[in-house]
Design brief:
- The structure holds two protein chains of two kinds.
- Chain A has one helix and four strands, in the order βββαβ.
- Chain A is mostly beta strands.
- A two-stranded antiparallel ribbon of chain A has the order 1-4. Chain A has a two-stranded antiparallel sheet with strand order 2-3.
- The relative contact order of chain A is 0.30.
- The C terminus of chain A is likely disordered.
- By secondary structure, chain B is of the alpha+beta class.
- Chain B is built from three helices and four strands.
- Chain B has a four-stranded antiparallel beta sheet with strand order 1-2-3-4.
- Classes of the chains: A mainly beta, B alpha+beta.
- The interface between A and B is medium-sized, with 15 and 20 residues.
- Chain A: It comes from Pseudoneurospora amorphoporcata.
- Chain A: Pathway: Protein modification; protein ubiquitination.
- Chain A: It is found in: Nucleus.
Chain lengths: 101, 155
């Protein structure tokens, strides 16, 4: 039997490279979801990772850090919150094939 | 601070609460996103709080959880105000985590209730704060506007 591929569509999913059940401590929404002010997860609503090892939605932690009472501290551990860059997103790509026999 | 921030966060907390709370904490009412009532009990045998239930009122601003909720004990026929050197007889609580200085947005209604439970559990003094009578008579301020003077930090 000979199969001739006529057409295929690539489908990709992504998620933040963090434990799946982790939520942002400030808004309590999963990291793969958005902060309460955004509609689309991903680049538009990215995460910030502190050197102390705690992660938050960028918009959430900025709301906190701009308060005087925050004193620049991580809400989790009260160490000085310094960012570490973004956690990596892992991508998985699947090929979806339309085959003809 | 966008308005929906507090609403969404409180919605999350409410659905978690409806799936269960730690022992000795019960939701009484959460009819809106401004004011909730919860009952707490002290679970060990501390004679100061034995067989009593205490009612807490939480008030949330639109800046919750960036700003702390206002939390007070409320008195009812079967709900006294617990005796404690940091709790005034009108229900106002002097606890650093509820003030601007000690609050963190990762705290929640549940974690505040648990902190209050443990604040009572660990107490052995059958006392009100110093100056309780004058404070209760004269106080017209909201708890968040009061500059608490911490008389002692040992309790």
């Amino acid at each position: 039997m000979k199969v001739k591929i006529k057409k295929w569509n690539a489908v990709a999913t992504w998620r933040w490279d963090l434990p799946e059940d982790d939520v942002c401590g400030i808004c309590q929404v999963h990291f793969d979801g958005t902060c309460p002010t955004c509609k689309y997860p991903g680049d538009e609503c990215s995460l910030l990772s502190g050197k102390c090892g705690h992660n938050f939605h960028m918009h959430c932690i900025l709301e906190w850090i701009k308060q005087d009472s925050a004193k620049g501290q991580c809400p989790m551990c009260r160490q000085k919150f310094e960012w570490n860059g973004r956690p990596n997103a892992t991508e998985t790509t699947q090929g979806q094939m339309l085959a003809e026999t | 601070m966008p308005v929906q921030f507090a609403a969404k966060r409180l919605g999350k907390e409410l659905s978690k609460i409806q799936n269960g709370l730690p022992p000795g904490i019960e939701l009484v009412s959460a009819d809106n996103l401004e004011e909730w009532f919860l009952d707490i009990k002290v679970l060990d045998n501390n004679p100061l709080y034995l067989n009593e239930t205490y009612r807490l009122k939480f008030r949330f601003s639109q800046s919750y959880p960036i700003e702390p909720p206002e939390v007070v004990f409320v008195k009812q026929a079967d709900r006294p105000i617990p005796i404690h050197p940091h709790i005034y007889s009108n229900g106002i609580i002097c606890l650093d985590l509820l003030g601007q200085q000690g609050w963190s947005p990762v705290q929640s209604v549940e974690s505040v209730c648990m902190s209050l439970q443990s604040m009572l559990t660990g107490n052995t003094k059958n006392e009100r704060p110093p100056g309780d009578e004058e404070f209760v008579r004269g106080n017209k301020q909201r708890p968040k506007d009061i500059e608490f003077y911490y008389h002692d930090n040992t309790v």
